[in-house]
Structures are given as structure tokens and as C-alpha cells.
Amino acid sequence: MILVEKKRNPKWQRDELILALDLYFQLEPGQIHARNPLIIELSDTLNKLPIHGDKDEYEKFRNPNGVGLKLSNFLALDETYSGKGMAATSKLDKEIFAEFKDKKELLGKLANAIKLSAINPAIRDEILNLPDDVDDDAKVKEGGLLYRYHLARERNPGIVKKKKEKALKLHGKLECELCSFDFQRVYGEIGYGFIECHHKKPLYTLVEETETTLDDLMLVCSNCHRMLHRGWIDF
Questions:
Q1: Which letter does DSSP use for residue 11 in this model?
Q2: Domain HNH: where (predicted)?
């Protein structure tokens, strides 16, 4: 029998830390231990997230002990806690804690949306089937999974086609709704019909809706679209 050596657990990603921090704010320090049913439940959710591929490759992937240790890292960052906590915090731990310590309502909404990406097969499939051309440089405040789902929704060929057809019928052209760039005007025939679509709604709301409407989308040029994904404008 050949024994396959397990990999070390991967670094915690933003989506995972959002879930962990949301639970942290619901617990008292004495409740942070591997036997807590809520920590066990979070461990199960983390194992279902479509982030790290084959979880069996890793040793004790996001088990209750590991989840409890991560929550203890937040104790070390919490100014309201009189103890020490686990001091081995990462840069991302510190960033997430600082970002959401005064935004617990938003944190809860994001956490609930991320959880749905773990338990809803349709959402998981859309995320997993998205081509690997995601803009890694984008400023994704909400989390990587929700961003990928956002891309899947705004790239749906059926709704994009309808959005373009409506604009052509109304205006006779396709131009960016933010800067008025018209690909056909600049590039000629090769630019006819070319424009991108951006989904305007906050990412955490997308998993609660079953359909994207034409009003949810706006037509934008490639440059404006990239800047929107970096957080240029919040609708």
C-alpha cells in the first residue's frame, strides 16, 4: 500500500476569513473551542466552499481545531479582549479584522452570501465553470467567490444579448454609459456590436436572486469596467 503524504493546509482566503470573523463576533471568548457546534458547523461549511480544490490533499483541512485557532487569532486583534489570544496572525487577518470590526451588519450579509455559494449547487456550478481569466488585480471587497459569481452573472450570453439589442433599438449604437466610448466609432466595422456589461448590484445580493434583469446591467467599455471592479463607483 502506497501512502500519499498530505499537503500542509493552504493559507486562509478572504472568503474564509469573512466567515470566521462573522462567527467570532457571535461568540464569547470562552466559547471558542473545537467542541462548539457552531465552530463544527463552520468547519463543515469551509470544507464545502469551491476554493481550494480537492480537500483530501490537505492534512486536517479546516477542521474544528483549526477553525478554533483562527478565531483565537482574532482575539489577539480585538482591543476589547483583555487576554492575549493567539498572536500568530497573518497580514490578511489584520486587514479583514480592521475592515469589518465596525461593519458587523455588512459582514453578516457577506458571510450569508458566501455560505450560499457552498450549499447551493447552481451557484457552485456557475462559479466553478467560469473561465480562468478573472482580473486578479481587481479590488474585491466582498470576497473572491462572490466576485466570480458576479462575473458569471454579468457574462450570461442571453441577458447580455438582450441588453445590447435594447440599446441598439433605443440609440442606434452601443456606447459606454460612463464615458460614452463607442467601439464602432473608434475601430470601425470590427468594433460593431462590441461592448461589455457590468452588474450594478452589490455582490452579496446576487445569491439571493434567481434572475438578472436588464436594469441590473449597464453597458461599459473595457477600461471603465475594469475600474468598476476595482471599486471606482459603488451603485
A1: P
A2: 176-230
